[in-house]
Amino acid sequence: MLKQDWPSERVTKFRQAAFVYLHVAILYEATVYAMLEAGTLPLRFGPPWAWLVAGGALAAFVFVGLYSWRNVWVARIVWGLNGMRTPTLIGGAFFASPDTMTPPSFFVTALVVVVINLWMLARAGWDL
């Protein structure tokens, strides 16, 4: 059985984490689409549409894992993976090379969004 039963306060944390993650996923999907339309998306990793579909499927899986299953391991694993984004975001926000096309404000905004997401995932994954 995937679904875990928790007190109502903990269920609320899982639901909040699920919706925050969903909004982060929507922002990432929209960013990929906007970069694709602007012609700034690198094509070295394959067709962008495949990545958009894969990202949507992953976001749906994580949302269900948090909202319906209330699984601490989903929250903890996603927290760890999202935490690995922070060095790149910090580098782009504060230590970007002068020839970088993406403005530092893009990375600062993404860093704020990711940290909020980390906070909500941590509440669901580790709070008792």
Strands, helices and their partners?
Layout: H1 8-38, H2 48-67, H3 72-83, H4 86-94, H5 104-126
Task: Please give a handful of descriptors for the protein shown.
0% strand; single chain; 5 helices; mainly alpha; 74% helix; globular; 128 residues
Q: What's a concise summary of this model?
A:
This protein is an all-alpha fold and 128 residues long. It has helices at 8-38, 48-67, 72-83, 86-94, 104-126.
Describe the model.
It is a single chain. With 128 residues, the chain is mostly helical. The protein has one domain. 74% of the residues lie in helices and 0% in strands. The protein is globular.
Characterize the largest beta sheet: strand count, sense, and whether it forms a barrel: none
Number of helices: 5
The overall number of domains is 1
General form? globular
